[in-house]
């Protein structure tokens, strides 16, 4: 049982962001979506903890219409 | 069909035609796998049962083809497991392909020491024939072919049926009606009852082909194969060199067009090669639904199988769960009919099997969402899982081409006596008894010694003579099955030759398991205590509520 860490945890945030955007360079929308989905699945498995994953899903969904 | 001709069972004129209305203890509507299992179980208990079916043959087409280990174990108890297991094609391994590559492989029975395999594949008509043969051998079971129920009325006292035959109509009354008349359930409609749920917007073509090949007896499932792009395909071996091929078509496919041989052949040629030799046996286009009735018990009317609940075919949870319904129902009904348990025991059929149905519907719905994604993002995640599965073990566990039927664990049932003693492992109260190899007077497998009535499995010879005799003479008797130790008192003694029974049951000297007539654990202890066993039997038969003196 862990909590979702939403405090800064990336050593070099600008580098990470650059790499994330770079990951999608030259991809069409469908392939981009596929890469994102694979990335989510890989990270989810790495995290493992269902409470953390649930909290992350809720945080991702927050403020995105329509409300659930 | 080249490999099979449907038998025609003889219609017989009802003796009640034009005479007085007969009253029966129990009537079963529908002589499919579920109705037949119910009838055999009742007849084995010595309860006369009348089965009414509107047809005069077994299943037309192979339909349900995967029968689970638990179904075989139930059939063993019903005296017809052997012909089904022998005729069927045993399999344990499933492979899932994405495109041309193996994405995931599973073994449904990874350990040795079980009588029955994880599954046998057998055409439903063969399965039903085995059950009809068994039912016909039982004096207490009567099947009336071409007797169609056209009206039903039920009240607190009895159920009245109106039945149509070629010689005219007649009426019957009964104390109990078991409804196993399938997904469309005419009887359910006659009673104005609903089955609610979800229809999935997809169509599938199933084709049985006769083909001699050396493909292994495994379940092969393709997502997006080169021979059927963007859809799924399933290949399964049945008896008589018949193979089931299941093509996903999508919602827009025209079922009448797709059923035509000239449209089926190119699909098969693309899959099997232009040189492949085969004949088409049978084809059908289906859609599917996941739904269930709100309650399976409506007073004196009890619903079982597809009439009560419906799932998609991926996972083989239809016929297998229906057979488990009757396994759960019949011993309870038999006790109630004999006055040995209160009517409320039948409510636990509802509770236990609704929990099981919900589990099946959940698994079935999840598999369906994976096979037929309902949105673009769902499809993207599905493809992401399949793409990752080739290289990354974690993703293989997410691949869902159908989670195959496993027996329900009735862990939440009020018929269970909660553990006071510490145990580890899977044989919790509510679990179906795990099989294992033994030696003894009645066969080489543990389950051959259990079921039909209550059994107490005792490890070692710690139960005194008198206590065993007392249990055997109780109104709801309990037989003793002793594992190891010194034989005495004429009791059944089996030997745990490979020490697998003790391991599977976390057993030590003195450990006792109380087993229900449907082979589910309902209580267990580290030491034998006659009063505790009787209390647990009273609880498992609903008699605690009737006899408060047991409840302490």
Q: Please mark out the parts of chain A with pLDDT under 50 across 5 or more consecutive residues, or reply none.
A: none
CATH fold field value of the domain at 22-87 and 122-195 and 293-366 in chain B: FAD/NAD(P)-binding domain
The helix/strand series of chain A, from N terminus to C terminus, equals HHH
Q: Structural class, from secondary structure content of chain A?
A: mainly alpha
The chain-level mean pLDDT of chain A equals 94
- Low-pLDDT runs of 5+ residues of chain B are none
Provide the gyration radius of chain B in Å.
24 Å
By DSSP, the count of extended strands of chain B is 24
- Measured between the Cα atoms of the first and last residue of chain A, the distance is 25 Å
Strand content of chain B: 25-35%
Q: What is the CATH superfamily classification of the domain at 22-87 and 122-195 and 293-366 in chain B?
A: FAD/NAD(P)-binding domain
Main pleated sheet of chain B: 8 strands, mixed
Q: Helix count of chain A, per DSSP?
A: 3
Instruction: Let me know the average pLDDT of chain B.
Output: 95
Number of helices of chain B: 15
Q: Termini separation of chain B (Å)?
A: 62 Å
Oligomer: heterodimer
The gyration radius over C-alpha positions of chain A equals: 14 Å
Proportion of helical residues of chain B: 25-40%
Total strands of chain A: the figure is: 0
CATH class of the domain at 22-87 and 122-195 and 293-366 in chain B: Alpha Beta
């Amino acid at each position: 049982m862990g909590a979702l860490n939403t405090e800064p945890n990336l050593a070099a945030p600008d580098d990470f962001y650059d790499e994330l955007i770079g990951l999608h360079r030259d991809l069409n929308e469908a392939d981009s979506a596929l890469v994102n989905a694979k990335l989510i699945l890989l990270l989810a498995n790495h995290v493992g903890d269902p409470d953390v994953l649930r909290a992350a899903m809720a945080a991702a969904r927050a403020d995105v219409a329509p409300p659930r | 069909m080249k490999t099979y001709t449907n038998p025609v069972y003889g219609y017989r004129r009802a003796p009640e035609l034009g005479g007085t209305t007969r009253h029966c203890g129990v009537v079963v509507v529908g002589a499919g796998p579920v109705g037949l299992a119910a009838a055999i179980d009742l007849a084995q208990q010595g309860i006369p049962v009348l089965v009414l079916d509107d047809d005069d043959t077994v299943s037309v087409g192979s339909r349900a083809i995967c029968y689970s280990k638990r179904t075989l174990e139930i059939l063993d108890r019903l005296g017809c497991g052997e012909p089904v297991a022998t005729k069927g094609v045993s399999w344990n391994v499933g492979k899932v392909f994405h495109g041309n590559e193996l994405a995931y492989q599973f073994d449904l029975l990874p350990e040795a020491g079980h009588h029955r395999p994880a599954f046998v594949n057998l055409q439903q008509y063969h399965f039903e024939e085995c059950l009809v043969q068994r039912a016909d051998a039982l004096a207490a079971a009567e099947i009336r072919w071409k007797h169609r129920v056209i009206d039903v009325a039920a009240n607190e006292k009895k159920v009245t049926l109106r039945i149509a035959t070629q010689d005219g109509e007649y009426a019957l009354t009964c104390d109990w009606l078991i409804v196993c008349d399938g997904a469309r359930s005419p009887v359910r409609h006659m009673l104005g009852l609903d089955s609610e749920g979800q229809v999935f917007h997809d169509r599938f073509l199933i084709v049985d082909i006769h083909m001699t090949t050396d493909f292994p007896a495994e379940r092969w499932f393709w997502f997006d194969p080169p021979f059927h792009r963007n859809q799924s395909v399933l290949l399964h071996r049945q008896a008589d060199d018949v193979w089931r091929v299941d093509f996903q078509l999508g919602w827009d496919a025209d079922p009448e067009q797709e059923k035509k041989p000239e449209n089926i052949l190119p699909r098969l040629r693309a899959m099997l090669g232009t040189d492949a030799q085969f004949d088409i046996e049978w084809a059908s286009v289906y859609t599917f639904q996941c739904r269930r009735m709100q309650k399976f018990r409506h007073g004196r009317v009890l619903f079982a199988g597809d009439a009560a609940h419906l799932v998609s075919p991926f996972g083989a949870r239809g016929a297998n769960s229906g057979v488990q319904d009757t396994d759960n129902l019949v011993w309870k009904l038999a006790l109630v009919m004999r006055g040995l348990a209160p009517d409320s025991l039948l409510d636990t059929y509802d509770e236990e099997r609704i929990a099981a149905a919900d589990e099946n519907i959940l698994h079935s719905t999840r598999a369906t969402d994976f096979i037929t994604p309902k949105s673009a993002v769902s499809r993207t995640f599905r493809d992401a899982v399949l793409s990752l599965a080739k290289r990354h073990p974690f993703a293989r566990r997410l691949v869902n081409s159908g989670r195959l039927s496993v027996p329900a664990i009735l862990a939440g049932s009020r018929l269970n006596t909660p553990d006071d003693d510490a145990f580890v492992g899977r044989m919790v109260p509510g679990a179906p008894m795990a099989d294992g190899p033994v030696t003894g007077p009645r066969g080489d497998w543990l389950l051959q010694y259990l079921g039909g009535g209550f059994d107490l499995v005792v490890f070692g010879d710690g139960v005194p003579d008198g206590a065993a005799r007392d249990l055997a003479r109780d109104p709801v008797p309990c037989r003793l099955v002793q594992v190891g130790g010194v034989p005495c008192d004429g009791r059944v003694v089996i030997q745990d030759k490979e020490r697998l029974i003790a391991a599977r049951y976390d057993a030590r000297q003195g450990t006792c398991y109380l087993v229900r007539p449907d082979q589910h654990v309902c209580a267990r202890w580290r030491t034998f205590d006659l009063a505790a066993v009787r209390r647990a039997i009273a609880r498992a038969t609903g008699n605690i509520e009737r006899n408060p003196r047991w409840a302490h």
